[in-house]
Hints:
Layout: H1 23-28, E1 32-35, H2 40-49, H3 52-61, E2 65-68, H4 71-74, E3 80-82, E4 90-92, E5 102-104, H5 114-123, E6 130-133, E7 137-142, E8 145-151, E9 158-163, E10 169-174, E11 177-178
Parallel strand pairs: 1-2, 5-6, 8-11
Antiparallel strand pairs: 3-4, 6-9, 7-8, 9-10
Amino acid sequence: MADRADVEFSVLRLFTQPSVPDVRGHLLAQDVILVEGGSVVNLMAVWRAHGLPQILRECWDGGVVLTGSSAGSLCWHLGGPTDSFGDSLAPFTDGLGLVPYSNGVHDDLDDQPRRRVYRELVATGRLAAGYATEDGVGLYYVGTGLDEAVSVLPGKQAWWVEPDGRGGCAEQAVAPRLI
């Protein structure tokens, strides 16, 4: 395991202006880009205003690991349910689409109907088929194919969710490897 002294962290802020003089060069020099949660709608609007979709595609194509939780996961996919538009969950369909699937995050939260809403949106075609994850579960893609799901918490789960052709959805468990 790498010693923490071998890790150099950096932060890119885009508000009120970019915190580095060369955003493209900064991002392409990273090994990993971690995006935190928040409003995926606002995140994508700011990224687009600063030309980040093209830069992040270059990073992806160049082998930079792109990761994140919540909005930081939705952004790499085609979209998923979000509360970024208001108090209720609605489909977000304007992600970067680096992987050609939707993403249902927080699939195990008891205080929100995310699990039900994600499956309804996939069943009705408002969202593409995709992967749902409980908190603590990550999706590891090689290219655009899922290689495996991983989890930092025992007992957590991921699912492949797709329309069943009868107005509902079918789901297949994707057991994560505990890391």
